[in-house]
Sequence to fold (388 residues):
Amino acid sequence: MKNAMGYLACGLISVFVAYYINASGGVLLLELLTLGFLLSALIYLLSQRRLKVYVRSVVAVAAKNDKLEAELVLSSSIFPLPTAMAEITLQTTDNLRLIGEPKIRALVMSKEPMVVKVPIETVYCGVGAITVKSLVIHDYLGIADKDITASLTGEPAFIKVLPNIPETGGQQEILRATAENSAYDEDNESETNETSLTPTGFPGFEHRDYIPGDSLKRINWKLSSKKDELMVRLDEKVSASSQIFVLDIPQGNLFNGVYMKNIDNIVEASLAMLDMLVRQGYESEFNYCIGGEWRRAEIMQYTDILLLQEDLAGIRVTEDKDRFTFGELSAKTMPICFSACTADMQAQLQILVERLKGSFVFTKSSGIEKVAENVWHVDNNMEFERLG
Fold:
């Protein structure tokens, strides 16, 4: 309104000049003002239909805390006329961070697309999206503007952010609980005539006291519970089925930094758990959902964790309709579920506890307490604590 009043004032001054000072000069000034107004209005109207704006990513996969660039692309089909001034506001999901001002003002003055570099920093793991939040067109005279965001057809730019694989050492409590949770062959767990003779001449396993650094896979948990101390087998006949893990990422607000951090922590906690088990000689089965498709990874060595890490860079929230469609889990062992649920997700949490009869790991910051018999908290330092 202010600019419109100023422009009208200029027109009145032109009339004054033409009438009182110089007729031809005043008329020329008035004609220029009218021509400027018409040209500005024409470009303003054409730009609303013929200006295209979208964002594209330069890299597909990045590590956490990387600084990289996306590209904002503007193109126009009204050349040789320039476009009206475009004011673009960008937005990212909260596992990415825009560096600098999110608003960009630009106009296209050639038939070639105009590219603006947009600096970005990766923050949390998973798929991050950069989108055009709003696009407002301004005429040259500052008299009119219009929001044309609804006319945009371009897809968001996506960047996959790799989770870290934390090295936490051997946390004996969670490792022991995980090993006890695995299904062991009863014939191998107890003494049997199929094994070699012990020094006493009687059939059965030979054991010794546990020494820190021994593989937990060789601990005889039943005998240890009877003796109230850890006992390690000396023979090679140890057979254990894989521990089954499920990663649960329920629907939540991706533009909420607290929830994105919660997802990041629970994903990395699951990788830390797998790393601990591999170092102790255990095998695992890891179930997770990406894009509505449930996948199963067999974790037998560290390279398997690296492959899983790369795949988990594409993790997103799981829609309710896909959340529990991973099929039947093995009946031999109770699954351990790493869930990104928070205390304010009561509906999702209740369904989770009802559907999965096993153990649950939540982040300490989730606010979830003991909602089932076997619940663990993991903090930002990847320390696991069992709730009493």
Q: What stands out?
A: Residues 170 and 276 are 6 Å apart (CA to CA). The mean pLDDT is 84. The helical segments are 2-21, 23-50, 172-181, 186-189, 221-227, 257-279, 302-312, 346-355.
